[in-house]
């Protein structure tokens, strides 16, 4: 089993760096990717680290950098990013006459963001659950159902919608 260990690096006035593992993947026979965040003991991001800033250990012994061919990959290429757009479709919104503007705005937003991230579109009203309009994808979502959406509960449950959105993102 390979272990990634941060060299003992000291920052500024004696604070240490903290490595937080996000995920890992293995592709046989020997490709291992470890996704992590490095920040200071105060929680500030640590920019400028290179592959040489890290040592890889196997069975407690360091693996040579030549053998491991370790590298740091561009996070824009190696990570998937997700955005969940929550659209308020409560009674006060759907009865306001502003639905066409909201639909156009949601389309413009998703078209702009989908170039870089997977976008999911959900709506909320006063109900406990949010409703999916378009699942996470990099393609242009179909938002036509927003124009005819009718709230089940005309009140607004913004707090509940945000909590439900966070659950979906996790």
Please give a structural write-up.
With 170 residues, the protein is an alpha+beta fold. The chain folds into 2 domains: 2-78, no CATH class; 82-169, Rossmann fold (3-Layer(aba) Sandwich). 23% of the residues lie in helices and 35% in strands. The protein contains 5 helices and 9 strands. It has a 3-stranded antiparallel β-sheet. It has a 3-stranded antiparallel β-sheet with strand order 2-3-4, with no helix packed on it. Strand 8 (118-124) and strand 9 (131-137) form a beta hairpin. The two termini are 27 Å apart. Mean pLDDT is 83; it is low at 1-14.
Instruction: Tell me the domain tally.
Output: 2
SS content category: alpha+beta
Q: Output the CATH class name of the largest domain.
A: Alpha Beta
Major sheet characteristics: 3 strands, antiparallel
Radius of gyration: 23 Å
Q: Shape, please?
A: elongated
Query: How many strands?
Result: 9
CATH homologous superfamily assignment of the largest domain: von Willebrand factor, type A domain
Distance between the termini: 27 Å
The number of helices is 5
Report the average pLDDT across residues: 83
Uncertain spans, ≥5 residues at pLDDT below 50? 1-14
What is the name of the CATH architecture of the largest domain? 3-Layer(aba) Sandwich
Helix content: 10-25%
Our estimate of the beta-strand percent is 25-35%
What's the CATH topology name of the largest domain? Rossmann fold
């Amino acid at each position: 089993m390979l272990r990634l260990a941060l060299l003992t690096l000291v920052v500024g006035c004696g604070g240490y760096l903290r490595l937080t593992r996000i995920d890992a993947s293995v592709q046989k026979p020997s490709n291992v990717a470890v996704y992590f965040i490095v920040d200071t003991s105060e929680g500030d991001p640590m920019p400028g680290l290179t592959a040489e800033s890290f040592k890889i250990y196997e069975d407690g012994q360091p693996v040579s950098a030549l053998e491991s061919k370790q590298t740091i990959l561009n996070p824009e290429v190696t990570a998937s990013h997700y955005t969940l757009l929550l659209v308020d479709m409560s009674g006060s919104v759907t009865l306001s006459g502003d639905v066409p503007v909201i639909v156009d705005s949601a389309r413009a937003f998703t078209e702009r963001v989908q170039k870089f991230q997977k976008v999911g579109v959900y709506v909320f009203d006063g109900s406990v659950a949010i409703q999916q309009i378009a699942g996470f994808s990099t393609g242009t979502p179909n938002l036509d159902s927003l124009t005819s959406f009718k709230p089940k509960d005309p009140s607004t449950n913004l707090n509940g919608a945000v909590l439900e959105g966070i659950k979906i993102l996790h």
